[in-house]
Amino acid sequence: MKIIEYINQALSKVNDPELHKPLTELGMVDSVEFKDGVAKLGILLTIVGCPMKDRLQADISGALADISEIKSVEIVFGVMSEEQRNNVKKLIRGGREKFIPFAQPDSLTRVLGIASGKGGVGKSSVTVNLAVAAAKRGLKVGILDADVYGHSVPRLMGILGQRPTAIDQTFIPVEKYGVKVVSMEMFKPERSDPVAYRGPLLHRVLEQLLSDAYWGDLDLLLLDLPPGTGDIAISLGQLIPTSEIVVVTTPQIAAAEVAERAGRIAHQMKQPVIGVIENMSDTSCSKCGEAISIFGSGGGEETAKRLSELVGADVPLLAKVAFNSQLREGGDAGNPLVLSDESVFATFNSILDKVIIRPKSLVGVRLGVST
After folding, report:
1. Which domains does the chain have, with CATH numbers?
2. How far is CA 69 from CA 29, 39, 73, 191, in A?
3. pTM to 2 decimal places
4. H or E stretch at 317
5. Domain MIP18 family-like: where (predicted)?
6. Could you report the per-residue pLDDT of 21-52, keeping only the tens digit for each?
7. What is the arrangement of strands in the sheet containing 220-224, beginning at the earlier edge strand?
């Protein structure tokens, strides 16, 4: 085998850091030359100023390091033409025009909308820690920050100021902690700019965030929904009919009564309500160890009970997430607590054990069948 063939073989094992497909498959390898121990490569980037350029250079050099005949590597980066970018878009979309991959009959992605009846119950914090915990156990996970008005996921994930890489009308979600993230905040000129959209435009925004992003193959997509029972909650049921809902509440009975409404709108949209998470539950006194109910008690059980009666089936209380100031501090710093606190990880891991298995059905479940 010639050295050029060895090089091409090595390059076929290097994936684009954002598209997660081989460079050779994406048409990013423009030229390969070898002379006097020097490998000269022409690599085409999808866009000018690609943020993954340095990462690509390191990955390519690492892949060629095992070829003993190569003494040095020279990489010349260029930019794809419009036709080449169109080919990439067709490739990543399977030859189809723009569509919502999670709404297709062949989709194996579980789509969970994380809902609440009111704001301030820690819904976004639950979403982020649940997603990072899922990635930590090896699942391919995405978060769509669908809270168009009150988006906070970028801060909680530590990606403030980062924007998706755009390939014409297709964009690549920002990735952190193994989780792909898309948020309305990433598309505003300034973080402080308010979003003042009405019904039809909100539906269009959600549709674009779902269809214009290249999510790749996901096991789990979490949507951080706005509080209440407005347009986005209705649009989710219309755009992804197979989506399911998890309701977040606090122990306060007044909050539980409002949280029930989020489950009711999901039921009206024929979305399964698969469980309730009680956030900010009892915590222990740091001095005496006595349980402290800062926000009261019983809200999670009450919400689960009412929703079970509503849907005529068991809607379980999935977990009680204890009030923890470190959870808040980790969110403010962009470091989800499941990464550093084993007890918190165990709580969210137990939720995953209950929600990632579909009850009474094998539809959409990956089967370990070898042929």
Report:
1. 3-92 (3.30.300.130), 101-355 (3.40.50.300)
2. 20, 9, 11, 51
3. 0.76
4. strand 317-322
5. 7-75
6. 899 988 999 999 998 889 999 999 887 777 77
7. 174-176, 179-183, 141-145, 220-224, 110-115, 244-249, 273-281, 317-322
Which amino acid is located at 241 in the chain?
A: P
Dist CA 60 CA 55 (whole Å): 9
Q: Give the three-state DSSP class for 221.
A: strand
Strand segments (E) across 14-109:
29-35, 38-45, 72-79
At residue 150, what is the residue type?
G
The one-letter amino acid at 236? L
Rg, Å, the chain Cα set:
23
> In sequence order, which residues have a C-beta less than 8 Å from that of residue 215 and are 6 or more positions away?
101, 102, 142, 173, 180, 221
Write down how long the chain is.
371
Residue 89, Cβ neighbours under 10 Å: how many?
A: 18
**Cα 346 from Cα 338, distance rounded (Å):** 8
Asked whether the predicted pLDDT for residue 366 surpasses 90, the reply is: no
